[in-house]
Specification:
With 360 residues, the chain is an alpha/beta fold. It is 35% helix and 16% strand. It folds into three domains: 13-40 and 223-324, Cobalt-precorrin-4 Transmethylase, domain 1; 42-124 and 328-341, Rossmann fold (3-Layer(aba) Sandwich); 126-209, 4-hydroxy-3-methylbut-2-enyl diphosphate reductase, catalytic domain (Cobalt-precorrin-4 Transmethylase, domain 1, 3-Layer(aba) Sandwich), CATH 3.40.1010.20. The strands form three sheets. A five-stranded parallel sheet has the order 10-9-11-1-12, sandwiched between helices. It has a four-stranded parallel sheet with strand order 3-2-4-5. Strands 7-6-8 form a three-stranded parallel sheet, sandwiched between helices. Residues 40-43, 101, 124, 126-127, 192-193, 222, 224-225, 252, 294 line the site of iron/sulfur cluster (SF4).
Length: 360
């Protein structure tokens, strides 16, 4: 970063959806803009935690794994002085490290303690809830079927809470492989960012094999994942093309493409940034749907809308299916340090969606 460069904050009010203006267009070409879209409360908290840690403690601040699965966010925080590592043993002894929104296993906490690292745990509280369920049911000696994608960081973190009790079920096609000790002491839990429909398909198949399979105490698929899927489902039948803004390793962004196609979109593409849009995709289209994954800052959606408007899709109509006002407070130890330094700890973007989105 050069000394004159100003890097905008990625967390807080400016990162959330706001009204998008229409521009004149010809031929009735329009954009249907899903709402809610973009940042969820867990992502905003995690990104805010890294930004505030950089402000308070100064660079570098180490971050284990991508803080959230978005290329632009990771690149921008790197320019501000964050250093992203894969494992805690890459962090110098005694340095400060942030754990990502996807959560970590107890083994990772232990490794960090052994290296005397100062940790800031930005695990989303909704992921922590699933960890607690896993611990509780393992303690009661259940076999736990974790529906999720093998190798995903969130799944690794949850499985690490009770590796002897948890087996991962990747989808309906893996149900036949499941082996359990006692089919009457069996519960399923899930990764938070799956598609609701796909998860229930797996659960139904599991229940055919294990009729006494128990449901978790509450849904694990989080409000943000569900809300974004419901919104894209609503607009997809009217869209010739649906563009999903999000990175390839963002599970919930990839799911949005699938949900759009299942709900009747003519075609659907995922892009990291506006310049990845191929005008050829739109050659026959009059209506383009736009949404974004839970790890995507609104400014990337703005760029996509701007590019589409330059390609002739002038009118913007917001398709809103829910209003979100959830806010998670910053990790406790970071809050305490901020307070002690006299910094402002309040995060004033709580009502951002309510203020943000009338149809344009
Ligand atoms: S998608 Fe849901 S579970 Fe994941 S960080 Fe956001 S709020 Fe938390």
């Amino acid at each position: 970063m050069t000394s004159t460069e100003t890097i905008p904050s990625l967390a807080g009010a400016s990162a959330f959806p706001q009204q998008v203006e229409s521009v004149p267009s010809t031929g009735g070409k329009r954009i249907l803009l899903a709402a809610p879209r973009g940042y969820c409360a867990g992502v905003d908290r995690a990104v805010d935690a890294v930004e505030k840690a950089l402000d308070l403690y100064g660079a570098p601040v180490y971050v284990r794994k991508e803080i959230v699965h978005n290329k632009f966010v990771v690149e921008t925080l790197t320019r501000r002085g964050a250093i992203f590592v894969e494992e805690t043993d890459e962090v110098p002894e005694g340095a400060r490290v942030v754990f990502s929104a996807h959560g970590v296993s107890p083994a990772v906490h232990a490794q960090a303690a052994a290296r005397n690292l100062a940790t800031i745990d930005a695990t989303c509280p909704l992921v922590t809830k699933v960890h607690k369920e896993a611990v509780r049911f393992a303690k009661d000696d259940y076999d736990i079927l974790l529906i999720g994608h093998d190798g995903h960081e969130e799944v690794e973190g949850t499985q690490g809470e009770a590796p002897d009790h948890i087996q991962v079920v990747n989808g309906p096609e893996e149900v036949d492989k499941v082996q359990v000790r006692d089919p009457d002491r069996l519960i399923w839990i899930s990764q938070t960012t799956l598609s609701v429909d796909e998860t229930m398909e797996t659960v139904d198949k599991l229940r055919e094999r294990f009729p006494n399979l128990q449901d978790p105490p509450s849904d694990d698929i989080c409000y943000a994942t569900q809300n974004r899927q419901v919104a894209v489902k609503k607009l997809a039948p009217d869209a010739d093309v649906v563009i999903v803004v999000g990175s390839a390793n963002s599970s919930n962004s990839v799911r949005l493409v699938e949900v759009a196609l299942d709900a009747g979109a003519g075609s659907s593409y995922r892009v990291d940034t506006a310049d990845e849009i191929d005008p050829e995709w739109l050659s026959e289209a009059t209506t383009v749907g736009v949404t974004s994954g839970a790890s995507v800052p609104e400014l990337l959606v703005r760029d996509v809308v701007g590019r589409l408007q330059r390609l002739g899709f002038g009118e913007v109509v917001e398709v809103r299916t829910a209003t979100e006002d959830i806010l998670f407070s910053l990790p406790k130890n970071l809050r305490a340090d901020l307070k002690a330094s006299g910094a402002v700890v309040d995060r004033p973007h709580k009502a951002r969606e309510a203020a943000g989105g009338r149809g344009a």
